[in-house]
TrEMBL record:
It is found in: Cytoplasm, Cytosol; Endoplasmic reticulum; Mitochondrion. Keywords: Cytoplasm, Endoplasmic reticulum, Mitochondrion. The gene is Dere\GG10781. The keyword Mitochondrion applies. This is UNC-45/Cro1/She4 central domain-containing protein. It comes from Drosophila erecta.
Length: 634
């Protein structure tokens, strides 16, 4: 075959351009299936002459040959010549041709498109020759007389522009300056008027929008274009076209303004109807990926506040509740994610509890709370339930419905995103729920796992939530019982604080005692003093205040008091307090400073801890806190 190619090339080079058999030779060359067979030949100069021939048929066949030959990377580089590219651009300036035929423009688009493929040098030459304006003017051709070749021209025009614009940000921005968006909008308007009839037009135009989106930062489409894309999605039965629309709308919907526009245009309902129609056909990986993309767009639109509030008043809300009964994991997960986004206001959350939507979510979680169940679904369920349990009127109802019993088995799951949401959901649930907090302090499995996660998790969120949940359990179980004992500004000196705690105050300490019986609990609260976030530092101070009141007062058992003192010294509470003051004193709020003073004063009710705190110079460090210095100055 190589020998035959050599002979053909030799004949072409020695044949007069006007010779009758030139066209036949070109046809034979373009019919060669392996373009790499031409790699050793220098053909650019030979074909340059052919592209300038007066015979339109010869020029067409020459361009067709170049299109085939330049499928090879080697020949793409060899044909990257200024005069060749200039000749092609000159021809494209006169499209449509006087006779209306698109055969020659088609082959030139193919040839130039192949030369541009992954070829920045060729793209730069086009730019230098101001050929980008020539290429973009091809988009102005909306009526093609040559009906036989119309579809092919639309295809190769799109391919040429795509290969050129893929050259990067600079070329894309220049195209924007030349009005490419207005041209594309006009074509898409035509396509949207009859999607079935203009399917090929859209399939070869939308990729240009995708390229521009990737290369032009913060490219925001006109509202009308976003709506047209939504309408095309609704009307199309072509999965490739649907995928293009979804991807473009995904990018545009990062803007909250666009989210609202799409919500009001009914895009979410459109997607819901399409998914309901085609859900049984999503048997291939490609179809499933398309289905997920559509589901994700519903959720993305719901992340906007205005769009969420608007959609709350539409049938979409009921549709998402209905998907809680779906056997399709993607539709089920989307329903849960959607409801979690709707549950961003107290009124919505209360409504979901009143309407038993919360119970449906718990039923789904009860069936999917194991180690082998879908992690994404678990994460979505916990996120939604966490939101629902935040409003105070909901807490008792959610607890009574069995939330805690349903999620505690999930302690065996060690996927960080699920664990993070699990702990956050529990923490929101115990807020203000003394009885539940007392019960959970006694849950050895829970506390041991929290201590483990607080020390060993590579996921900072899990470490923080483990510590915070322990602190919240202590606070909400005992703060109301010992609040009388917490000193406030102007109270007696520290050495008298223990004496002022009445001996008659009696309450059940068993939950806290069982909590402290777990190794590492005191250490966890002490280590939390130097957490990165002020809110965690404050929560640690409150927890230590409670521990001090309960176990360091005169009413406490001597053995328990001694055990706590020994633990605090072992964990170097003085060192941690010194570190807290040194690192965070400049940013401390009045509340944190008061809790810090309370904590230190309560610790001083123990002689052993007084000595320990003195070793770390706590008294002097307290005096250095700016907010206290300001008070003194005033």
């Amino acid at each position: 075959m190589a020998t035959e190619i050599d002979e053909l090339i030799e004949q072409l080079k020695t044949t007069s351009v006007s010779a009758a058999n030139t066209t036949n030779l070109l046809c034979e060359i373009s019919a060669t299936k392996d373009p790499k067979l031409f790699d050793k030949h220098e053909l650019a100069e030979c074909f340059l002459g052919l592209t300038k021939c007066d015979d339109t048929n010869v020029r067409k066949e020459a361009a067709k040959c170049i299109a085939e030959i330049t499928k090879s990377e080697v020949q793409r580089k060899k044909f990257t010549k200024r005069n060749i590219i200039a000749a092609f651009l000159e021809c494209l300036r006169h499209v449509p041709t006087p006779d209306g035929s698109m055969e020659l423009p088609i082959q030139i688009c193919r040839a130039l498109g192949n030369i541009c493929y992954l070829n920045d040098e060729a793209r730069d030459l086009i730019l230098e020759l101001e050929g980008d304006a020539v290429l973009l003017r091809l988009l102005d051709i909306t009526t093609i007389e040559d009906a036989t070749n119309a579809a092919q021209f639309i295809k190769v025009r799109g391919g040429l522009l795509s290969n050129y614009l893929l050259g990067g940000e600079g070329l894309a921005k220049r195209a924007m300056e030349l009005g490419v968006m207005k041209k594309l909008q006009g074509i898409i308007d035509i396509g949207a008027s009859n999607v079935e009839q203009h399917e090929d037009l859209l399939l070869n135009t939308l990729p240009l929008l995708s390229i521009l989106t990737e290369n032009v930062a913060d490219l925001n489409f006109e509202s009308s274009l976003n709506i047209q894309l939504s309408r095309i999605l609704a009307a199309s039965i072509n999965p490739d076209l649907a995928e293009m629309c979804l991807e473009l709308l995904h990018y545009q919907a990062e803007s909250d303004e666009v989210k609202l526009i799409l919500a009001k245009d009914g895009l979410c309902e459109t997607i819901y109807n399409l998914l309901e129609k085609y859900k049984t056909l999503a048997s291939t990986s490609e179809a499933r990926a398309l289905m997920k993309l559509a589901c994700e767009l519903i959720v993305l639109i719901l992340t906007g506040d205005d769009s969420m509030h608007y959609l709350y008043t539409t049938p979409l809300l009921k549709n998402m509740v209905d998907w809680l009964d779906s056997t399709d994991i993607d539709l089920l997960t989307t329903g849960v994610l959607a409801l979690g986004n709707f549950a961003r206001t107290d009124s919505h959350c209360i409504y979901f509890v009143e309407q038993q939507t919360m119970n449906k979510l718990l039923e789904v979680l009860a069936k999917n709370n194991g180690v082998k169940d879908d992690v994404r679904l678990q994460h979505a369920l916990l996120s939604a339930l966490r939101n629902l349990v935040i409003p105070k009127p909901n807490k008792n109802a959610v607890i009574q419905a069995g939330l805690v019993q349903t999620i505690l088995p999930m302690l065996e799951i060690h996927q960080p995103p699920v664990v993070f949401k699990l702990l956050g959901t529990l923490r929101m649930t115990v807020d203000g729920q003394e009885k539940l907090a007392l019960e959970l302090l006694k849950n050895k499995t829970l506390i041991e796992q929290l201590v483990h996660w607080s020390k060993s998790s590579d996921y900072a969120g899990v470490t923080g939530e483990s510590l915070r949940l322990m602190a919240w359990l202590i606070k909400h179980a005992y703060l109301s019982k010992i609040a009388y004992a917490l000193p406030r500004k102007g109270d007696a000196p520290a050495e008298q604080i223990a004496d002022k705690i009445p001996l008659t105050q009696d309450y059940d300490r068993s939950s806290l005692s069982e909590f402290l019986a777990n190794e590492g609990t005191v250490e966890a609260m002490v280590s939390m003093l130097t957490a990165q976030h002020l809110v965690m530092q404050n929560e640690a101070l409150i927890a230590l205040c409670i521990l001090s009141v309960v176990y360091l007062s005169q009413a406490s058992e001597a053995a328990q008091a001694q055990r706590l003192q020994d633990e605090l010294v072992k964990c170097e509470v003085g060192k941690k307090l010194a570190e807290l003051i040194s690192k965070s004193s400049d940013t401390m709020t009045k509340e944190i400073v008061e809790n810090l003073q309370n904590c230190v004063n309560l610790l001083k009710s123990s002689e052993q801890l007084v000595a320990h705190l003195e070793q770390h110079n706590i008294n002097e460090l307290l005096k250095s806190i700016p907010i206290l210095t300001e008070y003194c100055t005033l």
